[in-house]
Automatic annotation (TrEMBL):
The active site is at 171 (proton acceptor). It comes from Thermoanaerobacterium butyriciformans. The keyword Metal-binding applies. The keyword Magnesium applies. The record marks 27 as: Transition state stabilizer. This is Galactokinase. It is an enzyme of class 2 (transferase). Pathway: Carbohydrate metabolism; galactose metabolism.
Amino acid sequence: MATKVLEEFKRIYGSSDGVRLFYSPGRVNLIGEHTDYNGGYVFPCALDFGTYMAVRMRDDGKVRLSSLNFDLKVEVDINELVYDKNDDWANYPKGVLKVLQDEGYKLKGFEALYEGNIPNGAGLSSSASIELVTGVAMNEILNLGIERVELVKLCQKAENNFVGVNCGIMDQFAVGMGKADYAIFLKCDTIDYKYVPFKLDGYKIVISNTNKRRGLQDSKYNERRSQCEAALSYLKKELNVDNLGQLTFEEFNKYKYLIPDDVLVKRVRHVVTEDERVLDAVEALKNNDIKKFGKLMVESHNSLRDDYEVTGKELDTLVDEALKLDYVLGSRMTGAGFGGCTVSIVKEEFVKDFIDTVTKGYKERIGYEPSMYVTGVGDGAKEIKIK
Ligand code: NG1
Ligand code: MG
């Protein structure tokens, strides 16, 4: 893909002299869902595919953005960066540039071509990937000297404040900090993190996309966030906690009477038990107990289905079909839910059988086919040296 991006850059912008190439992966969350904005634990990893950005600085203030994935070219002045819904995907790079400027970094115009193979709207963080590839490119080319974790936070800010998506830190963190063969164990309120080896010998990560459009997803996502906030405010009457991620299961049991609404109690129960599952899952990996890891994935899915109520029949069907197969270690929805993808850990020699069987089962029950992506654990955002 790298070669194609450079050739296309040349076609679009006249020459490829002085061009540099950057890459940023997508991410998948292995366990720890709807915990990031609650300050809890997540355990994502970077995919081994993502977004490329070929870029060359200009002497004037023009920013020219094009993409091979979208039939839309955007040209803006570096000093006039505002959100424009007609600019679609280009708002992600624009948002990163704006946030950098607001932080006092001096930027210049450039021309760039983006090309990626992360399906968008699937919950694999194509947006964080575009943000990080842009941020890393500017940081490297203009020698801004921004530490990677800081850059991750600025990219989250771009998504929150410029694009207007109130996401937690997980996506940008996984995409920016990813490391091949490691998953990232991250505590979202303190940003303490550890790399945990995730080189599942003989297994592959298979991501199955329900291909269900997530039309209502944004509003329901925000509804879950508000429910967690509401529940927290009740708990705070007796408990000194800043977020649900700080609540232990014992405290939850002792103080849940403070929450006057059964639905809210279920939401909190998911967050609290999910946090414990992440801890257990990391422990299981350290002990090489991948069976246990798989079992925790399934428990996570069940909790998201029954307590957090963010799965739906498409995601439940994919997981159900996957778990019928005895070479599948674990399977669960990943991302916000409602549609989007599941993640399954599958014995390598059965990956093809998995794809065929789950596709068939899903199609019979849902009426159309899912999409499948097989991935290993790849690196985070970086420059690709052009030979
Ligand atoms: P997806 O659906 O993968 O975009 C969303 C949030 C994450 C996290 C998960 C739920 C965005 C951009 N990302 O992920 O921060 O909260 O849901 O665990 O909204
Ligand atoms: Mg996104």
